[in-house]
């Protein structure tokens, strides 16, 4: 049984760090009967802050004293395999996946979520829940062992999705970059999540929550709008 909450971003407009996500996370934990469980936090995507700083920021922002970073445990695998709620923060997706491979945690993390642990991620933490990180927006600052990710959600995810070209930007739009991926990988599907929105995944259905609809892209480049508060098979 899968229980995933995949947020596009840690912030929405000017609401502050994780402010918009508090209600989504609380509702998710209630649905999972895990409101009072310890939350295991994985901070490896945070390149510009150390593990202690990242843990402190998330605890304070969510007002959750029961968040404990994985770096405080002597045995990381054991911590994952005992966890009932796992929270994976954003930052750089390549660094996050690289660390999970380096510490040999990717398979046991996937195993634990498939066994029933609740999974919450945002940005990079959402990216790695998909099939691979090939549709991340992040700069490849480090080379992971593979681009293959947790594959809990068996499709591609593109967080922070912004449609169209930003004024003054002469490079490719997000749609054009995703079209390139689909030309190279025509069998894949991409779920493009605007900021302020999230995928709520339970078993084989995905529900769109937040402020904006989600777009599903397929080859040849065509999009399907997934409306807010609606459930879809995937």
From TrEMBL:
One of its GO terms (molecular function) is serine-type peptidase activity. GO terms for biological process: proteolysis. InterPro entries: Class_I_gatase-like, Peptidase_S51. Belongs to the peptidase S51 family. This is Dipeptidase PepE. It comes from Campylobacter aviculae. It holds the Pfam family Peptidase_S51. The keyword Protease applies. Keywords: Hydrolase, Protease, Serine protease.
């Amino acid at each position: 049984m899968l229980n995933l909450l995949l947020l596009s971003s840690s912030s929405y407009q000017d609401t502050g760090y994780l402010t918009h996500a508090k209600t989504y996370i609380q509702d998710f934990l209630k649905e999972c009967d895990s409101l009072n469980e310890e939350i295991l936090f994985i901070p490896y995507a945070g390149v510009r802050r150390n593990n202690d700083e990242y843990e402190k920021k998330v605890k304070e922002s969510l007002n959750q004293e029961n968040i404990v970073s994985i770096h405080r445990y002597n045995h990381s695998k054991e911590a994952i395999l005992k966890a009932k709620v796992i929270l994976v923060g954003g930052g750089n997706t390549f660094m996050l996946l690289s660390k999970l491979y380096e510490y040999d945690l990717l398979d046991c993390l996937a195993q634990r979520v498939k066994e029933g642990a609740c999974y919450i991620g945002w940005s990079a933490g959402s990216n790695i829940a998909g099939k691979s990180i090939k549709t991340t927006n992040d700069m490849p600052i480090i080379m992971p062992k593979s681009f293959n990710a947790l594959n809990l959600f068996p499709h591609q995810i593109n967080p922070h999705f912004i449609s169209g070209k930003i004024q003054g930007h002469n490079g490719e739009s997000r749609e054009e970059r995703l079209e390139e991926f689909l030309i190279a990988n025509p069998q894949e599907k991409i779920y493009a999540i605007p900021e302020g929105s999230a995928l709520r995944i339970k078993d084989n259905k995905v529900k769109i929550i937040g402020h904006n609809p989600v777009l599903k892209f397929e080859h040849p480049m065509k999009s399907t709008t997934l409306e807010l508060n609606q459930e879809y098979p995937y």
